[in-house]
Specification:
By secondary structure, the protein is mainly beta. It has one domain (6-138): Immunoglobulin-like, CATH 2.60.40. The chain has helices at residues 41-46, 120-125; strands at 6-12, 20-27, 33-36, 47-53, 56-62, 74-77, 82-88, 94-96, 109-116, 130-133, 137-138. The strands form three sheets. Strands 4, 5, 8, 9, 10 and 11 form a six-stranded antiparallel β-sheet that branches. A three-stranded antiparallel β-sheet has the order 1-2-7, with no helix packed on it. Strands 3-6 form a two-stranded antiparallel ribbon. The radius of gyration is 15 Å and the shape is globular.
Length: 141
């Protein structure tokens, strides 16, 4: 019997910019899984971050885009492999519900979130639905 087992984690860049890296989705199950590509409204809204600094939580989402061609686009992640989404929180493509400089505070914890709600497009494309959260990554300056 095939089963789906996914894990999400963040690999931060070791050098500048400090708020950049890769979100890695690992498929450790025995079945292939389809996930959204970025560059369309479905994939771009599926990825977000939370930054925890003390009792404060800062949510970071991708800026709304104007697409010249907006169609649902997905990719298959074969069993035993991974899919990566590069990111740079300082490149202007991301917005936060508070001061973005909290991301650069030493000791803050960054969590990546991949969240796909059921939709006609997700069903039509056979995209995995649910929410994955990475373990916190402690940020250093």
């Amino acid at each position: 019997m095939n089963h789906v087992s996914l894990a999400l984690h963040i690999e931060l860049r070791s050098g500048p910019p400090l708020r950049a890296g890769t979100i890695v989705l690992g498929n450790t199950g025995s079945a292939d899984v389809r996930v959204w590509r970025t560059g369309n409204q479905w994939g771009d809204t599926a990825l977000s971050f939370e930054v925890f600094q003390g009792n404060d939580v800062l949510r970071i989402v991708r800026q709304p885009q104007v697409y010249t061609r907006n169609v649902p686009s997905s990719v298959v992640v074969p069993a035993g492999t991974k899919h990566e989404w590069p990111f740079d929180l300082g490149d202007g493509e991301w917005k936060a519900d508070g001061p973005i400089d909290k991301v650069a505070v030493s000791g803050a914890q960054l969590i990546a979130i991949y969240d796909v709600t059921p939709s006609p497009e997700a069903i039509d494309q056979g995209v995995w639905t649910g929410q994955l959260r990475s373990k916190p990554v402690v940020l250093d300056k």
